[in-house]
Amino acid sequence: QVQLVESGGGLVQAGGSLRLSCAASGRPFSRYAMGWFRQAPEKQREMVATISNGGNTKYADSVKGRFTISRNNAKDTIDLQMNNLKPEDTAVYYCAGSSTYVAPTSVRMWPDWGQGTQVTVSS
User: Fold this and answer.
1) pLDDT by residue (tens digit) across 70-88?
2) What is the DSSP annotation of 32-64?
């Protein structure tokens, strides 16, 4: 059974930091690209950061320089370090696993998702 379980969300003031973690199980996620996405109320789900099986990373322009994605293939985990958080970062954050070595470009091409964790940034 495939499972992606996120943790680390919460409430933080603007300028603060949070670290999200995702534990993956059920198939060899270490072989494939993984990513973090977010969805704010009444908005579409969007890519935040992705990491290929080889460690190549991509970031949304809105988070470049503030967020860092990392992975531990031995533990099948990925993290998202979020610094200098802004109110517009408020959203439910989702961990996702792909079936390709390079991160898919479309949200719909990611087959496995976690249940999400709420991040709220107050001004």
Assistant:
1) 999 999 999 999 999 999 9
2) S-EEEEEE-TTS--EEEEEE-TT--EEE-TTTT
What is the rounded average pLDDT for all residues in the chain?
A: 96
Amino acid at 65: G
Q: Which amino acid, one-letter code, is at 100?
A: T
CA-based torsion, 66, 70, 76, 77: positive or negative? negative
Total length of the chain: 123
**pLDDT for residue 118 is more than 90:** yes
Q: Where is 81: in which H helix or E strand?
A: strand 77-82
Using CA atoms, how far apart are residues 122 and 98, in angstroms rounded to an integer?
Answer: 32
> What's the chain's Rg over C-alpha atoms?
13
